[in-house]
# Entry
Amino acid sequence: MRTRRMLGIVAAISLAALAQASAADKPYDGVTLTLASQNDQFATVMADLAPKFKEATGITVKVDILNYPELLSKVTADFVGHTKGYDLATMDIVWAGQFAEGGYTVELGDWIKRDAAEIKPDDIYPVLMTALGNFKGKQVAFPFAGYANVLAYRTDLYQAAGLKAPETMEDMVANAYKLTNPPNHYGFVANGQKGPAVAQDWMQYNNEMGGSILGADGKPALNSVANIKSLEVYKNLFDKTAPPGAADYDWGGREDAFRQGLAAQMQTWSIGAPGYSDPEKSKVVGKVAITVAPPGKGLPKKYGVGGWGMSINADVDQKHKEAAWLWIKWLTSPAVHKEFNLMGAGSYLRISETHDPELVAKFPFLPVIDEVFKNGDGEYRPRIPQYPQIQDLLGTAVNAVLVGHADPKKALDQAQDEAVKLF
Amino acid sequence: MAISETRGDKSGGRTSGPAVVVHARPWLTYHRRRQGFLVLLGAPALIYVLVIAVWPLARGVGYSFYDYSLLRPGRTAFIGLANYSAFWANEAARNSIETTALFTLAAVTLEFSFGLCLALLLWRDSAFRRACLALLLIPVTVTPIAVGLIFRALLAPDYGLIGYYLAAWGLSSPHGLLGDPATALGTLVIVDAWEWTPFMALILLAGLKSLPTDILEAAEADGATPLQRFRLVILPMLLPAVFLALVLRTMDAFRIFDIIFSTTNGGPADATDVLMIYAVKQGLEFFNIGFASAIANLMIACIAVFSAAFIVLVRRADRRANEL
# Structure
């Protein structure tokens, strides 16, 4: 009887100790985090990884997948209204200025320093750490999905024409003319649709041709000589080398045109690259190579960088903030982030990833992404609070030029007049 | 004062007629109870309308007098009518009003013309006509955003089933009907008419079916030609239905958004930049809530003026039809 009682006491103590140990291991057990995510490839992968995170920490992560405008309006409404609907939100590279100015998100600088040993910041490309979440020294988001602007080109058409991959923008333009053979295929394709689609693509080419949206003083310089010249080149490319409907293409239209074999080359985000080898989506499987987007002759290597950071809502309680930070650290840890990409997220972050033999074997274009990130420029789309209006002005001006409604100088002069009013 | 008659002698048996007794009227009369009950029944709907419609509307009117940006809520300031004057001073905004008015006028005219023809064709009842009507109503059931996406794919000059041939035969610009500033708005009017003409036809058909047959038969017996019967008899009696159809479609066409958003997003250039696209951009892209509210209020004012004018016309037409 005494022995049985002793055994009972020992069992009770063991159970209590186990429970305490478990509580110590999983201090946020039972916490639920709601994450507002852009509907890019990484979103479903994050949702697939969430159960593993729960297993490790006891924290449930619910991923709310939204399209771009919906994500921006819902997240902004949540932040401004202090409704605490989302604990975490994916943040586009160009939103950093707005988020920082509004003070909507947790400033992560101190936590990054505190947990540096765990995070291994030296393994993260510096351009991503800055561009995907830092605004004037404030770390409003933590990078988790870096995209590289690259040139995708048709190897079969290049070989048939006796051409090699372009090293300068001038080569790329010349090749576009040589590879245009309507209606079979066209030498070039880019976004032309009014709005963010055409504005973002043109800003990329403009940057490579030596143009800039802001002047050295940080004020708009939309109608600079370099910008007008690059818009003339862009307009000629559209008129003479792009599919006729390209003036109305958004990202989907452009990618479709390339995957359906209508265009010989285009600049695009690296996240789309795996899609060219997918026979269900692509008619050009095995005929596409990826290389860096060529800069203008004599201009420094400045490759476009984009992507997403993850931010924590400043309104939620401390426990949720800490739990959200745990999720960010877990997702971006070397092992989990590698798994994330092996599962098809297409979202690179760490130097070790682009050199990982397993990842390189699966995605042979990773050395190109490494080159882009090492020489990356995340500022060619100005990350300032006025960015949405500037993008809209350019989206209207460039589209008007492409459809023959205005000449480059007149269109950019008008946009500049409106842009200066924003500052 | 409630007055009731009582049978019986109340004055020592001397009087013989009925005695009149005056009672104090109870506060909760039947009439008041009934009124209270009706108010109670209507209260949930009233509260719902106040909370869902009137309150946001009032807030919208209030916001329009402020420089209020969601991105800089700390800098909110009362600016009176400055948002309205900024709207008039902005060329893009003025252009959006013109484009909206042009779109509304063209779309409603086209839909009314075709809708009336369809209604007249389907007037006389038969199984074939009933089947036609059912098939004609299919476009109305499709979500406008889906209609936009379908037509965008059909009209694409590179691979669209219609757009490819139009461009190849030189019937559209190489950019396609939606990619050319000269044709984009007209094309969207046709897309809108494809979707909403059957709705117009349905209202007009309901009006035609309710016309008294004896008057029509009398006109026919008096030797009126079909054109005379239509002009002098049918059309005047049909006017209430005509105005109803016009009111509904005008209000709807003025608020056009989905089809344009999913096809041209206001482009090419500013050819299809209608008021709703402009307002949504200001409100949900730039988060200028004060300015977006001012635009929304202007739209409400325009729609209210249309509606009031149409209602006056409907009443007059109704009166005239009753006099016939």
Observations:
- The radius of gyration of chain A is 24 Å.
- Residues 15-19 of chain A have pLDDT under 50 and may be disordered.
- The longest helix of chain A spans residues 2-25.
- Chain A is about 50% helix and 15% strand.
